[in-house]
């Protein structure tokens, strides 16, 4: 399956892995639509593309805004959802409100986009979600994120049944170096992780974008959770 002439909506496409996916998809011949909550970030992202892209601001956790998003963007061939706000506070410090907000911005956003977007996807199309390897390996510093990622993995498999013949898959990243999560503490963690990995580096957004394109172009892939972690789970 080629992406040439296909229309792809990337929710959370203004930065990081979403932006990398959108750039790679356009290079592969797709028509790309970007969505995120911030008009300013969408404008900055739009300047990164060699060809025109449509940008639509929407909060993926808001039902009315998502319905309006698909009414404007559809029909579509593929939808990718990377929208998330990660809270890495220690368990003793994170509040219940903050934990709820983390679920809202990652799990419920993906649930919302998938269920409301499926009717706008053409035959042969797909939805790609994003979870993370903390769904499969415990991290003391990622208790809430682990629970969210485990929920996304389960959501992927059940949506593949509930929304068929629309294909639903998920990408499960390991540690990825993105501009949005860069600070001194994060740099230290990434360096420590890289030293322990078989490839001696953490992931880059393009590494995950390649996995998304593989899933979009694979007509027999559905209900799959593809791990791209540089060998973290193997160690």
TrEMBL record:
Q: Which SUPFAM superfamilies match?
A: NAD(P)-binding Rossmann-fold domains
Q: Which Pfam families match?
A: adh_short_C2
The record's listing under SMART domains reads: PKS_KR
All residue ranges annotated as the Ketoreductase domain in the record: 6-179
Which controlled-vocabulary keywords does the entry list? Oxidoreductase
Molecular-function GO terms, alphabetical = oxidoreductase activity
Q: Which InterPro entries match?
A: KR_dom, NAD(P)-bd_dom_sf, SDR_DHRS6-like, SDR_fam
Family of this protein: Belongs to the short-chain dehydrogenases/reductases (SDR) family.
Full protein name: SDR family oxidoreductase
Q: What is the lineage of its organism?
A: Bacteria, Pseudomonadati, Pseudomonadota, Alphaproteobacteria, Hyphomicrobiales
């Amino acid at each position: 399956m080629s992406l040439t002439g296909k229309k792809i909506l990337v929710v959370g496409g203004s930065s990081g892995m979403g932006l990398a996916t959108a750039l790679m998809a356009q290079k592969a011949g797709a028509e790309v639509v970007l969505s995120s909550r911030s008009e300013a970030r969408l404008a900055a992202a739009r300047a990164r593309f060699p060809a025109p892209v449509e940008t639509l601001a929407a909060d993926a956790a808001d039902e009315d805004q998502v319905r309006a998003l698909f009414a404007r963007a559809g029909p579509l061939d593929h939808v990718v959802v990377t929208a998330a706000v990660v809270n890495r506070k220690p368990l003793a410090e994170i509040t219940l409100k903050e934990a709820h907000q983390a679920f809202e911005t990652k799990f419920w956003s993906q649930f919302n986009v998938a269920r409301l977007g499926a009717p706008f996807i053409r035959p042969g199309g797909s939805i790609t979600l994003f979870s993370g390897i903390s769904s499969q390996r415990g991290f003391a510093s990622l208790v809430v994120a682990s629970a969210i990622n485990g929920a996304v993995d389960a959501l992927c498999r059940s949506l593949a049944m509930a929304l068929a013949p629309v294909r639903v898959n998920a990408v499960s990243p390991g540690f990825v170096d993105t501009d949005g999560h860069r600070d001194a503490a994060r740099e230290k963690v990434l360096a420590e992780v890289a030293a322990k990995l078989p490839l001696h580096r953490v992931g880059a957004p393009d590494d995950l974008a390649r996995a998304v394109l593989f899933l979009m172009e694979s007509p027999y892939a559905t209900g799959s959770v593809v791990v791209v972690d540089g060998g973290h789970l193997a160690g």
